[in-house]
Design goal:
14 strands, binds magnesium ion, about 15% helix, Rossmann fold, rod-shaped, 6 helices, 5-stranded mixed sheet, Spo0b-associated Gtp-binding Protein, Chain: A, alpha/beta, binds guanosine-5'-triphosphate
């Protein structure tokens, strides 16, 4: 099934109900006064997060939403019924952008978070409000106001502590599958992963962290090459990035530069996040003798890399130590 992490929707709150013009008409009361009631307010539209929803797919099936209009006032001073509110259920991690004003209206990161996005129009006044000493039979009311209207962009950004980063085929999904129960797709070809996947990693004392596997990035992804850079937004909420490189590849320095240049182009804040370099596929190295010297040569070029690890996701080498250090890092930096 296609995974939509963005959607454009049109939301219109309900119009307020009009005020009523009416006069008391009863037997033996020849000229009863005004008794037209006020209208009801128009319905509002809210967004509400729910952890059972993971995509914005339903907003591609329907993208226009209307809340109910308020009802008009009635005779005998009866106020019109308020229009029903509409509540749209969205996944946790949704960012809401007002496309016309180009501002972020809300960033909803918790379950059951509710925000008002368009307010219903105010009710109109019935003629009972216009009675004065000089005008006892006012043929006057006000109309209900129109409800607010907005065009919104919804952007779903995964809530993960750790994000995977790297060229295609470096073993990101293999690593995530190895340490979590995530159903990542693995294949010996580029762009095996075409949508982001969230995994949960647990240790034996009950701590957990969330890890996001995203599609690989290639040179000029910012120009739309490969799957583009759009998926990088899923790393925005991560506190730690694991940059996977294939140690059996001859162009490691160049490959690391490609990823970080694209990262900077997408959002410099991502580049400034804590980044650990993970040399994967060490099982493929025939000769491990000069590996330390080689790694030092690589690291000298990348001063911003805080830590590095040598692992094999396939053969389970170095994974345990790396995971322990991630748990430690998270304990120190995230759960402060
Ligand atoms: N020898 C060896 N092969 C590995 C290792 N880790 C992953 N692979 C293989 O590398 C290939 C790519 O693995 P994936 O996990 O799909 O790579 P990816 O980085 O997620 O790739 P994309 O989703 O295309 O970006 C698969 O054939 C894996 O079996 C490893 O540690 N050693
Ligand atoms: Mg993958």
């Amino acid at each position: 099934m296609k995974f939509f992490d963005e959607a454009k929707i049109f939301v219109t709150a309900g119009k307020g109900g009009d005020g009523c013009i009416s006069f008391l008409r009863e037997k033996y009361i020849s000229k009863g006064g005004p008794n037209g009631g006020n209208g009801g307010n128009g319905g509002n539209i809210y967004l509400l997060t729910n952890h059972n929803i993971n995509t914005l797919n339903k907003f591609h099936i329907q993208n226009h939403y209307f809340a109910e209009n308020g009802f008009p006032g009635e005779k005998n001073q009866c106020t019109g019924k308020k229009g029903k509110d509409l509540v749209l259920i969205i996944p946790i991690g949704t960012r809401v952008i007002d496309l016309q004003k180009k501002i972020i209206l809300a960033d909803l990161n918790k379950n059951n978070q509710k925000v008002l996005i368009v307010k219903g129009g105010k009710y109109g006044l019935g003629n009972i409000n216009f009675k004065t000493s000089i005008n006892r039979t006012p043929y006057q009311n006000t109309k209900g106001c129109l409800g607010e209207k907005k065009i919104l962009k919804l952007e779903l950004i995964l809530i993960a502590d750790v994000g995977m980063l790297g060229l295609p085929n470096t073993g990101k999904s293999t690593f995530v599958k190895n340490i979590s129960k995530a159903k990542t797709k693995i294949g010996n070809y580029p762009f095996t992963t075409i949508k982001p996947i969230l995994g949960v990693v647990k240790n034996n004392i009950g701590n957990t962290f969330f890890i996001a596997d995203i599609p690989g990035i290639i040179k000029n992804a910012s120009l739309g090459k490969g799957l583009g850079l759009n998926f990088l937004k899923h790393l925005e909420r991560c506190n730690l990035l694991l940059h996977l490189v294939d140690i059996s590849n001859k162009n490691i320095i160049n490959n690391i530069n490609i990823i970080n240049n694209e990262l900077k182009k997408f959002n410099r804040n991502l580049f400034l996040k804590e980044q650990w370099l993970i040399f994967n596929k060490i099982d493929l190295l025939k000769n491990n003798k000069n590996i330390d010297i080689y790694i030092k040569k690589v690291l000298i070029k990348f001063k911003y890399i805080k830590k590095y690890y040598l692992i094999s996701s396939k053969n389970n080498i170095g994974i345990k130590k790396l995971c322990c250090n991630i748990f430690e890092y998270i304990k120190k930096n995230i759960n402060k």
